[in-house]
Amino acid sequence: MTFPASHLAPTEPERNKEAASLIRQVGDDLNFRLRQLHEQLLEQVPDVDRIACALYEPSDDMLRTFVHSTRQGVAIKGYEFCLSESASLSGLAASRSVRILDEIADVVNAANPHSQWLLNEGYRSSFTVPLYERQEFIGFLFYDSLKPAAFSKKVQRSLEVYNTLISLTISNELNLVRSITTSAQVAREFASLRDFETGNHLERMAHYSRLIARELAPRYDLSDEYIEHLYLFAPLHDIGKIGIPDSILLKSGGLNPEERALMNTHVQKGIDVLERMIGEFGLNTLPDSQVMRNVVAGHHECLDGSGYPNGLKGVEIALEARIIAVADILDALTSHRPYKEPWSVKAAICELERLVERGKLDGDCVQALKCHLPEVNTIRDRFKDS
Predict the structure, then answer these.
(1) Is 313 a catalytic residue?
(2) Which residue of the set 77, 241, 360, 384 is catalytic?
(3) Where does the HD-GYP domain lie (predicted)?
């Protein structure tokens, strides 16, 4: 018996395509709002062809592409750069001054991918504005034009309002996200959560998750906004453990079936805690809050349906949850535990591959780690437990 094509079960590539489409919907809220502001700006300043924001992370001195509105050509994504390696940008951040380039080709060379991209895309002039939040430097706002000397004093004055609007839009969302993560940390400390979820574990997990997501970005069309939110949300994955008794959480030996069942309730407890925080901070209408929910709800699901709490299979499990699962297990294997010594990264990757063969973990996520073993080792060493 044959069926119309519309009734056939979707193939794996089709399911991946659908999943990527959903990711774009839930992970591009700031990009969408920036595009709206860009459209309004063009009515006053028609020569601004690109607006982009790069966020700064003090822990590793890196600038990373975050959100953008690019009218034509190929947008640069997944790019990071050490701030201290640029005297010009470091000076802007320190002095709180802006930079005008009337002819980009006369000033920059193709020494780094960003400069090469600017030249390849034909951008002629630019206006760079450092961003601050509570007196702390948080990144840069870049305006680029295909025309030379597009950013006159008059244009700069017209952009002042948009600088403020864009800065507030970005900082407000980051503040909401940080309020959630800070509240989660306070809740953990208040509950005297003393298992292996140390601050350094959470830091390593977040960096591993971002590393995986950046490698998967081309295949799943992941935005830089999605990747940075995943990085920020990763430490929330086991927040439900604040509701698990210490007698189970800190038990040195194996858990019996009753204890294991109670331990497994930490996922639902985490969902309940998160939903309460989302409601209190008014995040219900933000699409990015769904990424946060998926991180907490799905990180113990397995591709073969043997995970919990819902026994989801394959791409029924959100990509962000699949990424977190791999990052979490990697860190557990390579960290000291009362019952074991830390594994080498090489041995841990081999174990992850065995779990892929058994149908537990996402092979793309594990392969992403294999492609970046030096970075994995750097993250592990930088954020060692004291």
Answers:
(1) no
(2) 241
(3) 176-385
